[in-house]
Design brief:
The complex is a heterodimer of chains A (366) and B (124).
Chain A: H1 8-13, E1 17-21, E2 24-29, H2 33-42, E3 45-48, E4 53-58, H3 62-69, E5 82-88, E6 94-102, E7 107-111, H4 116-129, E8 135-138, E9 143-149, H5 153-160, E10 173-178, E11 182-187, E12 196-202, H6 206-213, E13 225-226, H7 229-238, H8 272-281, E14 285-292, E15 303-306, E16 309-320, E17 325-333, E18 342-347, E19 350-357
Helix pairs in contact in A: 2-7
Chain B: E1 9-10, E2 15-20, E3 23-28, H1 30-36, E4 39-43, E5 50-51, E6 56-62, E7 66-70, E8 75-80, H2 83-86, H3 90-93, E9 102-105, H4 115-121
Antiparallel strand pairs in B: 1-2, 2-3, 3-9, 4-6, 5-8, 6-7, 8-9
The chains are: A alpha+beta (366), B alpha+beta (124).
Chain lengths: 366, 124
Amino acid sequence: MLKRTPFYDFHVSAGGKIVDFAGWEMPLLYRGIVAEHHQTRNSGSIFDVSHMGRLEFKGKDAQVFLERVCTRGLADQKVGQSRYSLVCNEGGGILDDVIVSRDTKHWTMVCNASNREKLNHWFHQVRHDAKLDFDMADQTESTAMVAVQGPKVIERLAEHLPVDVRALKRYHFETGSVMGLIKFTVFRSGYTGEDGVEIVLSAKLAGMAMKMLGSGMDKPNATLKPAGLGARDTLRMEAGMPLYGHELTEQTDPISAGLGWAVDLNKDFIGAAKLREVQSAGPKRKLVGLELEGKRIARQGTPVVKGGRVVGEVTSGTQSPTLDKSIAMAYVDAAESPEGTQLSVDLRGTENPAKVVKLPFYKRTK
Amino acid sequence: MSSVPTDRQYLESHEWHKTEGDSVTIGITQIAADELTDITYVDLPKVGKKVSAGQPFGVIESVKATSDLYSGVTGEIVAVNDALKADPGLVNRDPHAAGWMIKVKGTVGDKLLSADDYLKKTGH
């Protein structure tokens, strides 16, 4: 049985094309992936991301626990601050990438929908084995979450939200309430490479919130329009952001994925020993960006070749709507990873030239 | 409820086949184009190449996925729609006419479906 978010009826009435994503009925698109992508970069889009896991931790050992399972240093994380982190297994393989936020009396974590069950099991196991004393709650199904992303979003939301979103710093969050009724938390973060926020609120009030947030969305020149998972993927790819199941898997480690900045090797966390080895020896393969010649797309699994040898594999690829180029992310042998290296991708038997470029492919200018 | 032109025949893999004289024009349906979403590239063979019924003759790529294109005809390609090189989006906009892909000199096999059967088999 597929699950539905509190916004399912909205998706259907807005013309959303519903697909199965990680066991949830989610909108792939409404008007078109490319149209929704451009809308996000030029103005603003609303994405339903309620399917993502939302976990809460509180109690005596909550912070100790999170320090243990997360690669990121959290000791100096302030109340109201969010941090990106990996959760690794003992071998340094990535179990998930998450955002950890510190509130006054508790911590919250947002994780991928596809890894929620896995993390729940893993966290229970770690808590038990380490005999840690804290409470853990899965609030995914009692809450809803939307991402509102684009250059015009902050100004637009400043009109409606009783929180000073303009002053809210990147990777910080604040809790507020509308009419004293609808309590929400707004995070200044996102997965598109644009400015914007992610809002968490009670599932029961999601419908009401969408009415307020989304009024006038069907007008042709609306500032905010709904966007689906298809555009979410093309946007994050342009922004060089990894996706679990593609750039991040249990067979890859954060150092090779270029995420060493989210790893505190001075801290003792699960997987630290292995990651220190990778760091000191240098990763054998590295995640790079590729720009393909021509219009063909290299998808996950496409071999990267040089001089007749396989030197890597593509993890994600698409035609970039903003840059009008075929882009891909791939793991390649460390020796082939420097910017400018000329490689090829094997597209169904045809070698298509591809050049190593710096990530991200797209950066917001402002 | 979807509809597709009744003046042609179909493969379950969404390729339409329109007989015009001694050749058959092949393209994909609006249903397929909508599934693919924004098409970015159509890889078609050259005029003169032979195709076989049941075999792929090309590849179509979109932001979302890459798919093989199948022929329901055996014969020689006598024309290829060059407009698709510069404008692959034509397949999304007008897949049943201007978005045609190849013309094959040959006859349709008996594995092809009527418009109704195609819609039934593909659940539309």
